[in-house]
Task: inverse folding
C-alpha cells in the first residue's frame, strides 16, 4: 500500500506544482463576446519590425488606425483624416484630421503624431514593404488638426499604402514597447494575451467613432486547419477567419447552424521561379513549366476547386485587372518542345516551400505534373517563417517556391531586381514608375501592360488566387466579403 | 508460441507489402489525378483515393517501405552502438561500467521525439534526421540489455574457465558473450522496432519526419485529418497499417522472449 | 543507504549540468542569425549589430553559456529574440498546462492498468484474462494522436459533449477546465494505460508464483485476496520503475497530444519556437523537458532504493 501512496505523491506533486502556474487571461463569455479563430499567431505586436501577415491582421483598423482605410470594394476611404486634398502637381497632400481622437494611453491625436508616425517608418521600421514610404519628402504640421505631407515625386501608390500597416498612427508616448504593448486610436485595445492560445481585445471606452457591437473579441490561434474547424463545431469559437481546409466547406454549407461567406482576396498563391539563376533565367524554361502545370487540376485537388485562376499578379478587385488565366493553356507537349528547344533536358529543381498546408498540397501537384514533362523536383518544406524567409526570401537560395503573396498591389515587387523573384526587366521597372507618378488613368493603362509583360515573360506562375472563405455561426453578421486589406476588420461585425 | 505466429504473420504482411512495392503497385503512388479524387472503398482502387486522386493502397505499400527503412536504420544504429557499449560496461571494471551506464542515462533524458525535433531544426527535417534521432534515443535500451546479459554470462562457468585459460577480453566478448546474449538483443530489436514505427508516425504527423511526396503512414494520417468527418477511410487505412506493424513487432518480440531460456529472460 | 542516496544526488546534479551544456551547444550550431530573424530582411547592418549586442550573441560561447545557466538557476531564462518577452514566466505557464495533461493522463493510465493488469494476471489461464491481454496489445499499437483524432471526431464534432481543444485555466472556470482536459487526458492515458497493463500483469504474475503467496492460498485465501493482502507491495517494485519511464514518455507524448488538442503547453511552445527559430526559447524548453526526465528518473531511483528490501541492505 505504501508503495502506491508514494507513486500518488509523486503524481500529485507534479500536478500541484503545475496548478499554481495556470493563471492567465480571463475571458468572460456572453452575448457581447465574439471568438474568432485564426491560423497564424502574431509572434509579437510590433509590425514595424516583424514581417508577416498575422500582426496587421489582428491589429490594423481594430487597434491601430491610419489616416485612411480600405473598404470592401478596395476603395480608399476616410478614417482618422476627415478629408484630404491633393495639389495639382500631385505631390502635396493636405489632411484634415478627425477632432477629439485619443490614443488608448490618453494622449490626444494631432498632426504632430502624423508627422511622427510617417517619418518613423524611414528611421525605425525594418519590414520589407517600408520602402513605399521613401517617397515622403517632409511632413508639415500646419495646425493641430491639419497635416501636410509633401512627396518628392507624385505617387499613386503612396496614399494607397497608407491604408496598410505603413499608415498606422502612433503616439511618441506609446512606442516604448511595441512588441508587447500596442497603443493606437482604434475601437479596441489589447486586454490580454496568452501565447500559443489567444489575444483578447476589449472595446476602447474612449473611442472617437462608432462603438463596435462586440465588447470583447477573443482572437483564438489554432494552427491546424482541422482543429480550427473542430473548434467551430464544438463551440470553441464563433468564426473561422479564413478556412484553410477547403474540402470541409460543403459540410458547413449543409449545416443550418453555420454560414459560409465566400469572396476573393489579395493573396496570389504563386509558384516563384528564380529568374536570376540557370536554368530558370531562360524564359523558354519558365514558359515550359507554365504550360506543364494544369492549374485547374491543381486548384481542384490541392484546394478543392475553391479560388480563382489568374494569369498575373493582379486580383480581380484591382482596377487594372484583366483575365489572363488562359494565356498558357495546359499543354505538356508544348512544354516538352520548349524544354528541348532551350536545351534544358534532365532538369532537377529544388522546390523549397514553407511548411504550410496550402504550399505542401500545391507542391505535390506541381511535382507530379512537372514529372510528366520530365522535370524532376525535390520538395523541401522549410520552417515558416524563419527558415523560408532567410534561405529563400533573403538569400535567394531556391529554384522554385510556392507562397501566398498577401500584400495588396504586390505586383510592384517585380520592379525590384533584388527581390527574390530575381526578375530584372527595364520595361517593367519603367512602366511601374510611370504608373506611380502618372494620372490615375495612365496608372491603369500602365499597370495593365505590366501585368501582361509579366505574363509573357512567365516571371512566375500564378497558380491561383486564394479564396476568402469565412465560416461563422449563423447569428454573426457584418463580414467583409472580399479580403482586400491587411486587416481582419472586426469593427463592422454585429449580431444578426 | 501463439504470439510468435501472429506476430510473424503481421510483420510478414508488412515486409511483403514493402518488398512487392519495389516491383509492383496497383497505381503510381504519387501521381496526381484530379478526375479520380476521393474515391471510396472498392472499385478499381481497393482502398480508394486521397484528395489528390492518389491510390491509397499503393501509398500504403510504399509507405511500408518507409516504415521498415526507418525501423531498420534506427534499430541498426541503436544495436551497433548500444551493444558494444553494454558489453563493455558489463566486462570492464565497476567504475567504468558505472560511468558508461550514467552516460547512458543521460542519453535517455533526450527522448526520440525531442531529439528529432532538435535535429530537424538544425539539418531540416526529413526521414534521415528522424531515423538518426530515433536510433540515438534507442541506444540506451540496447546498452542496458547488453550489459545485464553480459553480467550474467560473465559469471557462468565456461567464461570463468575461458578467463582462467588466459583468453583476451575481446575474444571472450566475441566468442562467448555476444552469442549468448544475441537472443536478448533480437527480442529488444523487435520491441524497439515497434517503438520506432510509432515514433516515425508521430514525427511525420508533426511535420518533422518524411517529406512529401514520399508516402509515409504518419503523413497520410496527418493529411487525412481535414476530411475525417466525410472520409474517415483516409485515416482508418494508415491508422490500421501502423497498428498492424506495431502489434506485429511487439508480438514477435514477446513470442521470441517466451522461446528463449525463460530463466535468463525473466531476470533481465 | 545514506551514502547511496547522496551518490544518486551527485549523479543527478552532474547529469543536469552535462545536459545543459549539450543543449546549449546544440542550439549554438543551429543555422540562422537570431538578429536577422528578429528584424526581418530590411534591417541595416548597424541595426543588426546593435541587436546582436542587445541579445548578447556577439560574445564568446563560454560567456554566453555561463550567463544563460546562471540566469536559469535564478529562474531567468532570458528574453526571447522573437517575441521580445521574458521566457521564464511563459515557460512556467506552459509547463503548468503540460503537467496537468501528464498528471491526468497518468491517472487515466493507472485507473485502467492496475485493475486490468491484475485481472489479466489472476485470470491468465482463462479466456477473459487472455482477452484483456490481447486488448492491451492492440492499445499499445495505436498512436496517441490517432486516439486523439478519433476521440475528437466522436465526442466533440459528432456528439458535441466536450470541447475539441483549447485550454481554460482551472482557477478561471474549473468546470470548463475539466471538460477540456477529458479528451486529451484520455488519448494520452488510454495508450499508456495499455502499455502499463502489460507490466502490471507480468509483475503480478511473478508475484503470484512466489512461495509466500502459495502459502497464503493454501490457507484458503482466493487468489485475489492473497494478492491484495500480500502481493501488491512486491508487485509494485517493478511497476514503479516502469511508471517512471512512463512519466518521461508521457511528458514527450504530450507534445503531440497538445498539437491535436491545441493546448498551450510546453510541446506547442516548442514547435512554435522551432518554426520561428526562437533559439533561446527552444533552449529553455528543451532544458526543462530534459531536466524533467532526469528528475523523474532520479526520483524513481530513490523510490526503488527505499522500496526494494534487497537494495536497502547494501
Result:
Amino acid at each position: 500500500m505504501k508503495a502506491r501512496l508514494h507513486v500518488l505523491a509523486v503524481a500529485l506533486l507534479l500536478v500541484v506544482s503545475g496548478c499554481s502556474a495556470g493563471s492567465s487571461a480571463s475571458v468572460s463569455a456572453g452575448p457581447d463576446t465574439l471568438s474568432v479563430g485564426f491560423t497564424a499567431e502574431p509572434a509579437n505586436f510590433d509590425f514595424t519590425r516583424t514581417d508577416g501577415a498575422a500582426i496587421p491582421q489582428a491589429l490594423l483598423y481594430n487597434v491601430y488606425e491610419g489616416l485612411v482605410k480600405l473598404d470592401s470594394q478596395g476603395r480608399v476611404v476616410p478614417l482618422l483624416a476627415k478629408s484630404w486634398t491633393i495639389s495639382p502637381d500631385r505631390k502635396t497632400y493636405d489632411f484634415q484630421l478627425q477632432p477629439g481622437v485619443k490614443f488608448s494611453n490618453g494622449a490626444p491625436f494631432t498632426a504632430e503624431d502624423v508627422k511622427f508616425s510617417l517619418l518613423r517608418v524611414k528611421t525605425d521600421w525594418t519590414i520589407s514593404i517600408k520602402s513605399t514610404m521613401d517617397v515622403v519628402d517632409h511632413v508639415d504640421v500646419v495646425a493641430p488638426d491639419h497635416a501636410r505631407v509633401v512627396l518628392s515625386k507624385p505617387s499613386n501608390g503612396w496614399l494607397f499604402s497608407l491604408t496598410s500597416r505603413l499608415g498606422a498612427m502612433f503616439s511618441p508616448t506609446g512606442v516604448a514597447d511595441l512588441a508587447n504593448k500596442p497603443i493606437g486610436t482604434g475601437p479596441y485595445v489589447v486586454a490580454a494575451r496568452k501565447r500559443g492560445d489567444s489575444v483578447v481585445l476589449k472595446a476602447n471606452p474612449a473611442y472617437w467613432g462608432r462603438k463596435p457591437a462586440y465588447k470583447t473579441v477573443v482572437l483564438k490561434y489554432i494552427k491546424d486547419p482541422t482543429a480550427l474547424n473542430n473548434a467551430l463545431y464544438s463551440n470553441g469559437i464563433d468564426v473561422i477567419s479564413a478556412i484553410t481546409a477547403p474540402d470541409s466547406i460543403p459540410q458547413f454549407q449543409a449545416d443550418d447552424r453555420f454560414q459560409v461567406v465566400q469572396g476573393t482576396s489579395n493573396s496570389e498563391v504563386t509558384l516563384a521561379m528564380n529568374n536570376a539563376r540557370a536554368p530558370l533565367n531562360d524564359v523558354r524554361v519558365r514558359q515550359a513549366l507554365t504550360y506543364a502545370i494544369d492549374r485547374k487540376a491543381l486548384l481542384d485537388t490541392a484546394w478543392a476547386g475553391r479560388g480563382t485562376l489568374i494569369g498575373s499578379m493582379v486580383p480581380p478587385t484591382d482596377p487594372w485587372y484583366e483575365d489572363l488565366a488562359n494565356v498558357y493553356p495546359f499543354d505538356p507537349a508544348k512544354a516538352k518542345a520548349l524544354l528541348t528547344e532551350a536545351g534544358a533536358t534532365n532538369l532537377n529543381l529544388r522546390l523549397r516551400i514553407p511548411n504550410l498546408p496550402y504550399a505542401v498540397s500545391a507542391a505535390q501537384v506541381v511535382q507530379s505534373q512537372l514529372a510528366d514533362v520530365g522535370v524532376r523536383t525535390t520538395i523541401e518544406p522549410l520552417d515558416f517563417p524563419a527558415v523560408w524567409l532567410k534561405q529563400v526570401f533573403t538569400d535567394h537560395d531556391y529554384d522554385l517556391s510556392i507562397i501566398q503573396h498577401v500584400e495588396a498591389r504586390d505586383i510592384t515587387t517585380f520592379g525590384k531586381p533584388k527581390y527574390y523573384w530575381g526578375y530584372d526587366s527595364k520595361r517593367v521597372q519603367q512602366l511601374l514608375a510611370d504608373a506611380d507618378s502618372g494620372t490615375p488613368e495612365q496608372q491603369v493603362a500602365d499597370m495593365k501592360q505590366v501585368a501582361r509583360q509579366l505574363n509573357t515573360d512567365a516571371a512566375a506562375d500564378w497558380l491561383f488566387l486564394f479564396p476568402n472563405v469565412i465560416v461563422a455561426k449563423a447569428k454573426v453578421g457584418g463580414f467583409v466579403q472580399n479580403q482586400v486589406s491587411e486587416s481582419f476588420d472586426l469593427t463592422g461585425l454585429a449580431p444578426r | 508460441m501463439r504470439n510468435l505466429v501472429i506476430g510473424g504473420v503481421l510483420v510478414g504482411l508488412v515486409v511483403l507489402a514493402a518488398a512487392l512495392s519495389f516491383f509492383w503497385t496497383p497505381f503510381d503512388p504519387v501521381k496526381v489525378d484530379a478526375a479520380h479524387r476521393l474515391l471510396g472503398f472498392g472499385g478499381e482502387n481497393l482502398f480508394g483515393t486521397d484528395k489528390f486522386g492518389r491510390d491509397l493502397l499503393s501509398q500504403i505499400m510504399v509507405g511500408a517501405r518507409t516504415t521498415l527503412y526507418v525501423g531498420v536504420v534506427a534499430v541498426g544504429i541503436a544495436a551497433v552502438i548500444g551493444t558494444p557499449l553494454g558489453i563493455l560496461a558489463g566486462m570492464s571494471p565497476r567504475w567504468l561500467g558505472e560511468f558508461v551506464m550514467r552516460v547512458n542515462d543521460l542519453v535517455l533524458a533526450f527522448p526520440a521525439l525531442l531529439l528529432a525535433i532538435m535535429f530537424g531544426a538544425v539539418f531540416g527535417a526529413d526521414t534521415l534526421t528522424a531515423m538518426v534521432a530515433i536510433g540515438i534515443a534507442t541506444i540506451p535500451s540496447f546498452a542496458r540489455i547488453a550489459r545485464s546479459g553480459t553480467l550474467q554470462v560473465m559469471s557462468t562457468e565456461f567464461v570463468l574457465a575461458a578467463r582462467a585459460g588466459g583468453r583476451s577480453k575481446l575474444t571472450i566478448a566475441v566468442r562467448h558473450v555476444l552469442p549468448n546474449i544475441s537472443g536478448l538483443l533480437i527480442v529488444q530489436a523487435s520491441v524497439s522496432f515497434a517503438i520506432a514505427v510509432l515514433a516515425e508516425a508521430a514525427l511525420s504527423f508533426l511535420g518533422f519526419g518524411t517529406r512529401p511526396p514520399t508516402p509515409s503512414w504518419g503523413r497520410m494520417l496527418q493529411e487525412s485529418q481535414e476530411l475525417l468527418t466525410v472520409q474517415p477511410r483516409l485515416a482508418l487505412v494508415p491508422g490500421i497499417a501502423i497498428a498492424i506493424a506495431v502489434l506485429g513487432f511487439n508480438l514477435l518480440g514477446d513470442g521470441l522472449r517466451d522461446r528463449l531460456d525463460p530463466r535468463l529472460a525473466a531476470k533481465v | 543507504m545514506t551514502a547511496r542516496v547522496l551518490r544518486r544526488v551527485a549523479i543527478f546534479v552532474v547529469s543536469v549540468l552535462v545536459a545543459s551544456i549539450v543543449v546549449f551547444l546544440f542550439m549554438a550550431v543551429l543555422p540562422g542569425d537570431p538578429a536577422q530573424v528578429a528584424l526581418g530582411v530590411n534591417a541595416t547592418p548597424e541595426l543588426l549589430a546593435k541587436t546582436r549586442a542587445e541579445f548578447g550573441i556577439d560574445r564568446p560561447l563560454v560567456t554566453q553559456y555561463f550567463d544563460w545557466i546562471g540566469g536559469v538557476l535564478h529562474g531567468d531564462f532570458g528574453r526571447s529574440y522573437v517575441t521580445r518577452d521574458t521566457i521564464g514566466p511563459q515557460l512556467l505557464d506552459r509547463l503548468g498546462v503540460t503537467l496537468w495533461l501528464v498528471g491526468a493522463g497518468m491517472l487515466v493510465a493507472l485507473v485502467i492498468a492496475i485493475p486490468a493488469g491484475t485481472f489479466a494476471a489472476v485470470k491468465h489461464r482463462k479466456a477473459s484474462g487472455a482477452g484483456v491481454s490481447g486488448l492491451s496489445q492492440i492499445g499499445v499499437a495505436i498512436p496517441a494522436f490517432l486516439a486523439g483524432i478519433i476521440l475528437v471526431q466522436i465526442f466533440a464534432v459528432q456528439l458535441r459533449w466536450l470541447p475539441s481543444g483549447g485550454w481554460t485555466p482551472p482557477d478561471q472556470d474549473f468546470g470548463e477546465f475539466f471538460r477540456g482536459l477529458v479528451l486529451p487526458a484520455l488519448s494520452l492515458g488510454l495508450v499508456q494505460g495499455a502499455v502499463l497493463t502489460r507490466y502490471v500483469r507480468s509483475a503480478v504474475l511473478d508475484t503470484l508464483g512466489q512461495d509466500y503467496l502459495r502459502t497464503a492460498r493454501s490457507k484458503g485465501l482466493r487468489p485475489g485476496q492473497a494478492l491484495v493482502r500480500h502481493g501488491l507491495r512486491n508487485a509494485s517494485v517493478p511497476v514503479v520503475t516502469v511508471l517512471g519511464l512512463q512519466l518521461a514518455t508521457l511528458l514527450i507524448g504530450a507534445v503531440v497530444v497538445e498539437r491535436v488538442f491545441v493546448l498551450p503547453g510546453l510541446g506547442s511552445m516548442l514547435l512554435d519556437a522551432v518554426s520561428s527559430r526562437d533559439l533561446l526559447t527552444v533552449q529553455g524548453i528543451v532544458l526543462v523537458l530534459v531536466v524533467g526526465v532526469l528528475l523523474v528518473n532520479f526520483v524513481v531511483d530513490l523510490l526503488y532504493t527505499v522500496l526494494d528490501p534487497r537494495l536497502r541492505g547494501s
Q: What stands out?
A: The first helix of chain A runs from residue 2 to 19. Residues 161 and 167 of chain A are 7 Å apart (CA to CA).
